[in-house]
Design goal:
It is built from ten helices and no strands. By secondary structure, the chain is mainly alpha-helical.
């Protein structure tokens, strides 16, 4: 898996060179601005609602009384820290759904950009056919809905575990790695679809090469330092990764 993560990191560096060399900045800026606007709106919504959710959870579990009772003890500290972990887990939970909304809304642009990338690599403009783009858009939406369903099941279980002191401390890291995997999954699937992988074959391939997906997702998260660059770099790097690993 470590080797696959390294391959993905290298692909992100190649993606930057690829964008500069082939003057693809408009494909970075357009989806990036849309993504940035949605991201700001989603984080605003999160900020307004996360506190209410935590207050509700602590109320139904009567955690507030326990914290007050043991306010100056180790147990009180553990419950307080558990509240922070719950907040972080909720943040990743919100971001998960936001990600899938972006994957569905951005499917047309992502499909076009992925095909444009491969057309440049293969020097074959026929790759950029509209019929192929429509098929990849539909497949991307189906995959996003499928992954969203599975990830929601896992997230609910992890959300429950996150309120348990000590045990819940590692939950945000687990959720983050899962987020990276599923986002990288979507970015890689565009390239796999174009190489005649069926949906089930793509799921099997990425399941056996989790490092490629996790690596792409990790770089995607780090790229939020420059938020609007993240989606385009992720899709180009994903296409370059598939192009590299399919070679004998």
């Amino acid at each position: 898996m470590l080797k696959e993560i390294v391959i993905t990191i290298q692909s992100w560096g190649q993606a930057h060179k690829f964008i500069v060399e082939h003057k693809l900045w408009k494909w970075v800026v357009i989806p990036g601005l849309i993504y940035a606007a949605l991201f700001v709106a989603a984080m605003y919504f999160f900020g307004r609602s996360a506190t209410a959710v935590i207050e509700y959870v602590t109320y139904i579990l009567h955690v507030s009384d326990t914290i007050q009772k043991f306010q100056n003890s180790l147990l009180g500290f553990l419950f307080t820290f558990a509240g922070i972990i719950l907040w972080l887990t909720l943040l990743l939970f919100y971001f998960s759904f936001f990600k899938y909304i972006c994957l569905i809304i951005g499917a047309p642009l992502f499909a076009i950009l992925s095909r444009k990338t491969e057309a440049i690599i293969e020097k074959d403009e026929n790759i950029r056919s509209w019929s192929g783009i429509r098929k990849e858009m539909a497949r991307a939406v189906r995959m996003a809905l499928r992954n969203c369903g599975w990830q929601t099941v896992y997230l609910i279980a992890l959300l429950i575990l996150s309120v348990i002191p000590v045990v819940g401390w590692v939950i945000p890291l687990v959720v983050l790695l899962m987020e990276c995997y599923y986002y990288g999954f979507s970015m890689l699937d565009y390239g796999l679809a174009r190489n005649n992988y069926s949906g089930s074959q793509s799921i099997h391939f990425i399941g056996n090469h989790k490092g490629l997906a996790i690596g792409n997702g990790i770089l995607f998260y780090l790229m939020h330092i420059i938020i609007f660059l993240a989606p385009a770099y992720a899709i180009i790097a994903g296409t370059l990764t598939v192009n590299q690993v399919k070679k004998p």
